[in-house]
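Sanity check

After download, print the first record. It should look like this:
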Amino acid sequence: MKRTKEHFASGCHRAQWYATPLALSLAAGLGLPKTARAGGVQTLQPVEVTDSVDNLVGSADSSTEGTLTQKDIEARPLMRTGELLEGIPGFNITQHSGEGKANQYYLRGFNLDHGTDFAITVDDMPVNMPTHAHGQGYCDLNFLIPELLSGLQYRKGPYYADEGDFSAVGAAHLDYQHELDRPLGVVTIGNDGYERGLAAASVHLLKGKFLVGVEALHDNGPWVNPDNYEKLNAMLRYTNTFGRNTVTVDLMAYDGKWNATNQTADRAIDEGLVSRFGTLDPSDQGKSYRYSLSAQWQHTEEKSLTKISAYGIGYGMDLYNDFTYFLENPSYGDQFHQKDRRIIVGLRASQTWLDKFLGRDMDNTIGLQVRNDFITPVALYATAQTAYQNTAVQDNVTQLNAAPYFQNRVQWTDWFRTVAGLRWDYFNFNVRANVPQNSGNLSADIGSPKLSMIFGPWAKTEFFLNGGYGFHSNDARVATEKIDPQYNLAQTTLPALERAIGTEVGTRTAIIPHLQNELTLWYLHLASEQIFDGDHGVTTPSYPSHRYGVESANYYTPYKWLTVDADIAYSVPVFEDDPVGNRIPGSPTWVVSAGAAVDDIRGFFASARLHYFGARPLIDNDAVESTPNTVVDARVGYKLRGGHFKGWRVWIDCFNVANAKVSDIEYYYTSRLPGEPPAGVNDIHTHPENSFLIRANLKAVF
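Expected structure tokens:
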């Protein structure tokens, strides 16, 4: 097998995906033969992208799963950490507040808010936060250090038995490397007060190996009221392999604080009350921390694999936001403080056996995932210039999720295999609310069958048919709240779990030399999109919905020094029972990403990437639409190839090269400026795309 060439395009997302998910774990330790049947469940070796990419056919269970390697992540210019997810075809990242806040995510016609239907784990630890003060599934990735990641594995759709809450649209799993070949340092400086430093190294000690990394960052952004975002990240990983056992222990720490320029009413900008990068409430701000300790144990036998991981996470967040100005409280304004403090403990365990069924290769996996969140408190306070005014919500919640699952794979013939799974999720919600009527203790459960059928390969082409049931949990208070805590009005309790049903038909082909194409038609139905609105402390009712679309991901390597990629995603999001209109506000129709890169031409490398985020309806009758967003980023650099500085790199990243004056995100709702009618004014509220940014980078290895 040819080795993976080093790509400098920012879209190399098909590199190194294993022939089966079982192989993701077994390839490292089972010691099975290296020449195994492509596309079969016994193929345990990693499949790497080559200039022909033929080996990717037969390596996955759907046309929409894949991997970014560490080199792919390094090759992508990142204006913010969360943008590493934009290597997933069709994925879009925005921000409507300070950079320390979790990003807004978009995929498959979903405004995923901060993570409601896309599940993310880091080294087997969940990142999504249920029953969060700001939004269900809140997923903040600012604690990641991209240079130390080994890769990102992504999946779309509810077709995988080991994916649970928040994964109806998809999931991503990120892992850190176990060691570095050489110590490294990275220094970045840029306009708008951007400064970043990273130092990392590995050392062999205590019969194992340690990886340690420390990152410090400061960023003001283009805002009149500077973000003054300061974060400090640190991680320590210990790995020890003895016999057929591997033990890994991870310690991570993140602390961040920032000022926040939130979305601004367009009329305030048009009337000259503030500039495009100004704010109507300069006291908006935030801070967050995340500390974690986790351990993983893996044991391999000739035909089995046992994995157990356990984790504990301490998390806190404080957000001060003002989105409506003087609509709710004409005297002192509408700023509110959202507070979240929690301890999370959890366990993930699985056992896999290789076997035969009627003479055919088969593997079976049983697993158990348990998570308990102790949230004390999850709260919403009214504030003025961050000064406390009154309490709207101050609840303590304990939320338990336990989920056993089973998955079976059979290679029925040389050209047909199946993956069948069943998952059962049990939840217990214990809400102790400051409004006694809103307290309660209840349980809920849901079963989720899955089935995938894979046909081929023929002529370097494979076909996929996937279907499955999934779900997402709602905020625990959805199912217990009876009284609107702000207005003392009756609230209707709603289901704690929302059913999702999805299917897709796809193909992956490498029939054209040097070109890989993935084409997928998909459909996803949600029983309801109602959520708990953390900004107001009440349930926001909504309707059943469905979405369908087509995705095309293309990756072309005609020469060793040239890569070209293009991802096109078209989605149709539809409400089913909305009497006003069937459009789903904030849901995108078109997302397009394309890039070209040259690498290692006498040490030089360069790339350019275009990203298009199409118009979205802002209300359900489509009378108001957002403006499309097109941004071009670029990189140029040089690799030092000799002497004491061999392996060093210098490069410049340019973001929004054309300085396009477009919006990063837009909303449509009612707000009130001083002097306006008490009922307020309906308007578009805009958070602009950053202006032209340039950042100079130096990476040194020792």
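If your output differs, re-run the checksum step. Summary of this record's structure: The chain has one domain: 17-701.
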